[in-house]
Design a protein that fits this description.
Elements (H helix, E strand, L loop, with lengths): L21 H9 L2 H16 L3 H24 L7 H4 L10 H19 L7 H24 L5 H26 L3 H6 L1 H6 L10 H26 L1
Helix pairs in contact: 1-6, 3-5, 3-7, 5-6, 5-7, 6-7
Organism: Herrania umbratica
GO molecular function: dolichyldiphosphatase activity
Protein name: Lipid phosphate phosphatase gamma, chloroplastic
Length: 230
């Protein structure tokens, strides 16, 4: 007779809410923001930008989540009683990885923006840009409690750890590792993947815009010269 083993769901996008609860439906989507940032944001960034600041930002989030898993396995604090309805009782809840991820992201993004690294934000919209990551971080923290995945203490522990690790990682990257960026650019990895650092450029968008226009005009001029000579 065949032995039946209990099934376990892949929880990457497995978020439940009560049917008919519009706020719960909204918060379920908010709870998926870390997935959207990871798969949509950083993967797209690597494909289209290849910025070393972005790569180290993503690496820091991975390290943060690894630390979160180590702490969860060490502390082994259970999730709230609602975990039975959510089929999540086989995993630990302290600290909340969602809260830790979002507050790490908010802190690192804030420090990048305030320091003007990369030059992607105009001064007039800088503070408006900072509102989005912090509001999403708070909403994500609230969603994990509202939906029954974590206790209040667990999400606050995740938020505190995320803030701490985000600040430490920013200091480490931009005070200790930053001097190695030129070496990475010139390495086999940097040359193969076109990895670059534009932290020294005050306005990256304008720089790329001006260079793209200059390249287009130069190409048009060469074509015109070639057509005349032929």
């Amino acid at each position: 007779m065949a032995t039946h083993h209990p099934l376990k769901a892949v929880t990457l996008t497995h978020v439940r809410y009560q049917r008919g609860d519009q706020l719960g439906h909204f918060l379920a989507w908010v709870s998926l923001v870390p997935v959207f940032i990871s798969l949509g944001g950083f993967v797209s960034h690597f494909i289209f930008r290849r910025e070393l600041q972005g790569m180290f930002f993503a690496l820091g989030l991975i390290v943060s989540q690894f630390i979160n898993e180590l702490i969860k396995k060490s502390v082994q604090q259970a999730r709230p009683e609602t975990c039975a309805l959510l089929e999540m009782c086989d995993s630990h809840g302290w600290p909340s990885s969602h809260s830790q991820y979002m507050f790490f992201f908010a802190v690192y993004f804030t420090l990048l923006t305030c320091k003007g690294i990369g030059g992607i934000w105009n001064v007039r919209i800088k503070w408006a840009a900072l509102f989005l990551p912090w509001s999403l971080a708070v909403l994500t923290m609230y969603s994990r409690v509202y939906l029954g995945y974590h206790t209040v203490a667990q999400v606050f522990a995740g938020a505190a750890l995320g803030i701490f690790l985000g600040g430490v990682w920013f200091w480490l990257v931009n005070s200790k590792l930053f001097c190695y960026f030129p070496l990475i650019e010139e390495s086999a990895f940097g040359r193969y993947f076109y990895a670059k650092d534009t932290s020294h450029i005050s306005d990256v968008l304008k720089f790329e815009y001006d260079n793209a226009r200059a390249a287009r005009k130069g190409m048009a001029a060469r074509k015109a010269t070639a057509s005349k000579s032929s």
